[in-house]
Amino acid sequence: MRILLFFYLLLIGLFVGYVYNYQTTDSIEREWSENELTGNMDETYVMVTFQVGIDYWKRSLKGFEDAAEAMNVSVEYRGATQYDVDEEITVLEQVIAKNPAGIAVSTMDPRALNPVIENAVDAGIPVVMFDSDAPESEAYSFLGTDNYNAGVEAANKMAELLNEEGEVGVITQPHQLNHQERTQGFQDTIFVEYPNMKVVSIKDGRGEQMLSKAAAEDIMREYPDIAGIFATEANGGVGVGLATVANNRQDLIKIISFDTGKGTLDMIEDGVISATLAQGTWEMGYWSLQFLFHLQHDIVEQENDSMPLPRFVDTGVTIVTKENVDSYYPQ
Amino acid sequence: MRILLFFYLLLIGLFVGYVYNYQTTDSIEREWSENELTGNMDETYVMVTFQVGIDYWKRSLKGFEDAAEAMNVSVEYRGATQYDVDEEITVLEQVIAKNPAGIAVSTMDPRALNPVIENAVDAGIPVVMFDSDAPESEAYSFLGTDNYNAGVEAANKMAELLNEEGEVGVITQPHQLNHQERTQGFQDTIFVEYPNMKVVSIKDGRGEQMLSKAAAEDIMREYPDIAGIFATEANGGVGVGLATVANNRQDLIKIISFDTGKGTLDMIEDGVISATLAQGTWEMGYWSLQFLFHLQHDIVEQENDSMPLPRFVDTGVTIVTKENVDSYYPQ
After folding, report:
1. pLDDT tens digits, one per residue of B250-297
2. How would CATH label the architecture of A44-145+281-299?
3. How many helices (H) and strands (E) does chain A have?
4. Which A positions 93-152 lie with beta carbon below 8 A of chain B?
5. Are A7 and B7 in contact (CB under 8 A)?
6. Is B315–A311 a contact, with Cβ atoms under 8 angstroms apart?
């Protein structure tokens, strides 16, 4: 009987303890359940690119995944295996057919995907563009590098490397808008900010190493005092590096390149390329997912019918030099 | 004895029930505690402006508050009561002294706050700029309107209103950068896109109704065929509206203005002003808090030392006309 009473009291004690505990937990839970930034794992957001296998997309995808983890939703990665716009359209159509919670698209063609993007938006699927835009599409936002500003940053870094003095050249792809903008930002900044510097030559490297090497050698021949070359894309930068090394001018000509491919990073390590501009690819992926989540959950201004998201996010560039190059190699 | 046994069994039953319940709750709680986008109410984020009382800030503050609610953190609103940069500096210093979780600042002077912003960042307090930037400050990001693009949108809307034909003018504040950019975007777009339109006059309205009215009347006198006027700020728009009404030209001259003050909205309702550009002020506040939260919680790219946030967010503009003007009156 006394043992029974003891158990009886013990149970009452435990019971009271649990009730107290439960209610505390409950109040925390209530607070959390008001949090709008938690989805569920059935919600799938898809990233669609082209040349899906290249390293360039890895950081964007990591940002996309990190945001998904933070918000408790799922992601998928799809895209054209080749640099083939028809293949990308097909993949995008397949993705839309599965009615995902949202799609982040990078396009190799600023117009070709517009009808498919419109289909997605008409079907109520949120779409944002990242890295390269389709400006006339129905996508809600674009998250990528402001290429003009990137050119400005390149010019400022070049001026620093050359003590604001000397002749400089550019190797670019003059028919592609993003490269035109990078070149323009570079040119304008040198012209306006650095009176003792001059852009003496702008040449087409066609995005190929060997053609860029040849173009750089042309510049070196035509302008023997050339002190710096800005390459607006990665193959060009490596090509210019090959040119300075082949002509034993690597200590005389400062090179600034673009992006953080292995060839570029190695040349920075070796001191052949002085600096490269790393794009905010992780940021593109992270904020793309955030934006898609906000559209899917309708967490947007409620009072009027203004557009629901910022129309453009400049994810910016970071300057990579020998000092910080290590952290840019894939981990 | 049987009663005691009954209670005993009842208690065991309740106990098991509660244990079960508690564990379920616990597992939900665990899932949520992995969610990085939940703060706690002790975390206070502060919005700092000038002329704190004006309506213009209300939507930004609402966005700031909405984001705080979504992420379970607290907000405060502070600022200079007047258009007085010294007062704003003092307020910002007071805010910093309380070591908040983050500060979103709009400045009336692109340079004056820089030392104070640096103090905040040095003290480990995240700072972002919104609405008007301090581009050379240590703030991590700027969220606001791309004013050049806003001018482009105004030009496209003007072209639509005028069937892409006729003489147009601009009333602006030529000494202020944001107004220069709005004017430039308008001018460039008319010039490049609409060969049958021409910007014939750009005048200084000094941000005042009566001076803008006089400037608009000068344009109407000098260019009797003037078909449209773009005012790059709200008082100018109302001033131009007063000018067309006073001269009985309100049916002949299309006016596009800026922002959504009551005077502007009333003139849209009356058909005197054809359209105005609403800035994404809610978006500025909402994403400012998001950015500050991400800095405070270190939810940024971990692999390298790139900048942690996008450097610029263009919150965009929405065109307000008679059709959607109702939703822009304060609720």
Report:
1. 999 999 999 999 999 999 999 999 999 999 999 999 999 999 999 999
2. 3-Layer(aba) Sandwich (3.40)
3. 10, 12
4. 143, 146, 149
5. no
6. yes
